[in-house]
DNA sequence: CTCTTTCGCTACGACTCGTAGCGTAACTGG
DNA sequence: CCAGTTACGCTACGAGTCGTAGCGAAAGAG
């Protein structure tokens, strides 16, 4: 009842009949983000989004199952735009870079509100959690794998032998980086600036080095 | 309009008139947690909580300003019960212990749902954020300080000279521990078991050791 | 030109919100 | 024992939101 079984946007074009307006899609997602900034999650209403987008309320419900699914898609767009990992030449610089970029993304009011609200709702909705995972989490995790690949090519990190261990380590690093930045930004409510990013990166790289040198019991 | 200016529970007892029922307080907070488990944040209604608690809806509004404030208090109770830091003899064991205890707390369905939802709402409500900070975050942060104190007494960690640096480091560690556990549990949706706790602790201690040995530029 | 699908619009019952008003219950100070 | 004061349960209310249904018109496909 909460999450959407239907595909997020356009379907296969072999269909007959009037096609869905792609422009309406954009307008709706833009309106969702704007309304999120002004009203927050709790006071965001479907009717308001429809009015902002210049679209009938029924059109919203034809495409998304409800507030949850709509907001997930609206936020996923932002992650598409702002998540990449430029090669900055060293592991230290790469991690600092991704930390700062992720922090900048979380600093946007529409992102911080929406992401947490959707995650909260996902604790009760398996389909919604899958949607978040594929739309947001997996893309971020790809950055971790890419960063490690580069660091190994540079010789900054040892190559893992066992793929199972390598996967576990990557998951761990991902949770540590994303978790620390999110917690600092949203719970502690203090800024992720260059100084914090340096301190955090030093901590993480130090841990990786020593953990690699002395593998766990 | 969202958060409560009034004190959470009992006022100074020098007052005249009928005192507030402490039993009702308990019943309401219990009912809130139960409803949270069954319905989730989105479908939780004040009327439903009142009915479960055997209390008039108006009584709820006399004590709390709304859903947000009510849920913060309901969850803060859980943190009171389950957060402490037994001395396990080593820094490694202490960290693993607190990670596992915190993870067990987050594994409760009422905690995971409520905490995220309240944090999400707090991004738009300064008073609510303060309430979360004093009711939950500061108590957790105390554990970090206590753990470091013990580790320094054991000689496992160097004593910080500058208090400013020491405070920054404590904040960093706090965000890393709490953030990683929360992210692993709620976003990655994978279990924090003994194996994960060992790997994480090894990473953290390694980082602390090397950061202490080679202070940041 | 017909068929199919989406569109905007209106209207609807069901539900929740937060407040107000009332009479009653509980406790305090004289 | 008797005001005075405060909290309580109950009922009722207007305002707002939800998600759906039904309609005629618009936009492409064959």
Ordered list of secondary-structure elements with their pairings:
The structure is a homodimer of 217-residue chains.
Chain A: H1 22-43, H2 46-53, H3 57-63, H4 67-82, H5 91-107, H6 109-122, H7 126-154, H8 163-187, H9 194-213
Chain A binds a DNA duplex (30 and 30 nucleotides) through residues 15-21, 24, 45-47, 55-59, 61-62, 66.
Can you put this structure into words, describing what you see?
The structure is a homodimer of 217-residue chains. In chain A, 73% of the residues lie in helices and 0% in strands. The first copy, chain A, has 217 residues and is mostly helical. The first copy, chain A, folds into 2 domains: 22-63, Homeodomain-like (Arc Repressor Mutant, subunit A, Orthogonal Bundle); 71-212, Tetracycline Repressor, domain 2, CATH 1.10.357. Residues 1-12 of chain A have low confidence and may be disordered. Chains A and B meet through helix 1, helix 6, helix 7, helix 8 and helix 9 of A and helix 1, helix 6, helix 7, helix 8 and helix 9 of B. The structure holds a DNA duplex (30 and 30 nucleotides).
Helical content of chain A stands at over 70%
What name goes with the CATH superfamily of the largest domain in chain A? Tetracycline Repressor, domain 2
> What general outline of chain A do the C-alpha atoms trace?
elongated
Regions with little confidence, pLDDT below 50 for 5+ residues of chain A: 1-12
Structural class of chain A: mainly alpha
Distance between the termini of chain A: 46 Å
Number of helices of chain A: 9
Order of helices and strands of chain A: HHHHHHHHH
The assembly state of the depicted protein chains is homodimer
Question: Which protein chains are joined by the largest interface, and how many residues does each one contribute?
Answer: A-B, 58 and 56 residues
According to CATH, what is the class of the largest domain in chain A? Mainly Alpha
Biggest sheet layout of chain A: none
Q: Give the C-alpha Rg of chain A.
A: 20 Å
* Strand residue percentage of chain A: under 5%
CATH architecture identity of the largest domain in chain A: Orthogonal Bundle
Taking all residues together, what is the mean pLDDT of chain A?
Answer: 87
Give the tally of structural domains of chain A.
Answer: 2
Number of strands of chain A: 0
- What is the fold named in CATH at topology level of the largest domain in chain A? Tetracycline Repressor, domain 2
